[in-house]
Amino acid sequence: MKRYKKNDNVSYTLGTTLTIELLKEKIEYVRKVYFHTKLEQNEVIQKIEVLCKKHNIPIEKSDKPFNILSQKENCFVIGEFNKFDTELEKNKNHVVLVNPSNSGNLGTIIRSMVGFGITNLAIISPGVDIFDVKTVRASMGALFSINFEYFDSFLDYQDHYQNNNLYPFMLQANKKITNTKFQKPFSLIFGNEATGLPRDFLRVGTSVIIPHSKNIDSLNLTIAASIAMYEATKEEF
Amino acid sequence: MKRYKKNDNVSYTLGTTLTIELLKEKIEYVRKVYFHTKLEQNEVIQKIEVLCKKHNIPIEKSDKPFNILSQKENCFVIGEFNKFDTELEKNKNHVVLVNPSNSGNLGTIIRSMVGFGITNLAIISPGVDIFDVKTVRASMGALFSINFEYFDSFLDYQDHYQNNNLYPFMLQANKKITNTKFQKPFSLIFGNEATGLPRDFLRVGTSVIIPHSKNIDSLNLTIAASIAMYEATKEEF
């Protein structure tokens, strides 16, 4: 047991709620569950015990993983799981993140995706590690109910999913989000936190801007992506 | 010089961009600017020097404040400022946060507020400290261009700003945001990150829900607040 690293084959869910989400959605990848010695028995813990027993997942009582993995004092359950691969669904709505660099932001965007019923995420490399414990935590377990795939370049993504209508979000775009009709299946495309999308995305599909006042440079990436998802799906909810 | 504490009379801007925003918007409260000994001269630094000279603000070259206040390696400028009081504008649009508990979230919401041209923020106590260095940073300096006020209770706020139309955002609400016409001046009201608004807010003004899928419990607070601001102001941008 050591600190999480990007190249490890395993990652972790820190906390009861996250571990429950992991067991519910991806139990086939769970290797082990750790209980802190100070963990108090309750219904949720019982549920974890029943699930683990049924699927032959060992439960280990030890404080060591908590000292290594968790800075939070109120974490009493950790799930250890094998990283897994998924593939995007063709002809479904996608979110495409080009070079995302912040683990927490990635998790928050994934939570919003599931909130708005978009469950396919493309990440254009280089991009932050989707299995980082911070991403898993910020997603509040939503990571376990989406498909995701990394691509070497945007062209590589485009080659694989040619049917999607492309909507790059950028400050240089002319079309306002309020005047945009998002045609399904759509791909909502966002750039890096600091730099946004490269200028040549103006030639990709229909580029869109979320208008805002001149008193800020740009909206936070998680906010921009969530507003875009909200607007593109609002007729469904 | 010591670590930032809530009861201090001063707070800090960590980094060049934040310090520039501070000097632009609230120069009358600036006590001192610190330059790291490794700071390299450039146009922005020159601008800071000119502003400080003009307003008799001392610049101190010392690495100590950076070691105490900043964990980031790329922080070479710190601004020290006196905390200040402001009052909300009557008959303007407000955001009301009831018991916000996360400093970073508060800053992100303030950034979105300025993005959507809402520059009056009420915080119902207990709530996180608006001058926390994490809030200042997450706001990216937007904190320096809003008015804010703390209130002991929501009733207290309501007494002071009786003309505002109240829109509490809650999962129990019946009215969908997409069917809501926000009448100005409006107050968009949001609860605590973990608990949301107490149920009795259903009787306050027009309660509103941002519909989302059943696969998440709720949207992240910063996301919900930003979508609400976007929707309530979108005809202006």
Going across the biggest sheet of chain A, name each strand in turn: 7-6-5-10-8
Give me the secondary-structure category of chain A: alpha/beta
| Quaternary organisation | homodimer
Quickly give the CATH architecture of the largest domain in chain A: 3-Layer(aba) Sandwich
Helix content of chain A: 25-40%
Round the mean pLDDT of chain A to the nearest integer and report it.
Answer: 96
H/E element string of chain A?
Answer: EHEHEHEEHEHEHEEEEH
User: In percent, how much strand structure appears in the residues of chain A?
Assistant: 15-25%
Descriptive report:
The structure is a homodimer of 237-residue chains. The first copy, chain A, contains 7 helices and 11 strands. Chain A has 237 residues and is of the alpha/beta class. The first copy, chain A, folds into 2 domains: 10-82, 60s Ribosomal Protein L30, Chain: A, CATH 3.30.1330; 94-236, 3-Layer(aba) Sandwich (Alpha/beta knot). A 5-stranded parallel β-sheet of chain A has the order 7-6-5-10-8. In chain A, strands 1-4-2-3 form a 4-stranded mixed β-sheet. A two-stranded parallel ribbon of chain A has the order 9-11. In chain A, α2 (43-54) links the parallel β2 (30-35) and β3 (59-61). In chain A, α1 runs parallel beside α2 and α4 (103-115) runs parallel beside α7 (221-233). The radius of gyration of chain A is 19 Å and the shape is elongated. Chain A starts with 9 loop residues before the first strand and ends with a helix. Chains A and B meet through α4 and α7 of A and α4 and α7 of B.
Secondary structure blueprint with pairings:
The structure is a homodimer of 237-residue chains.
Chain A (H helix, E strand, L loop, with lengths): L9 E5 L1 H11 L3 E6 L7 H12 L4 E3 L2 H6 L7 E6 L11 E5 L4 H13 L4 E5 L8 H6 L8 E5 L2 H7 L4 E4 L6 E2 L9 E5 L17 E2 L11 H13 L4
Helix pairs in contact in A: 1-2, 4-7
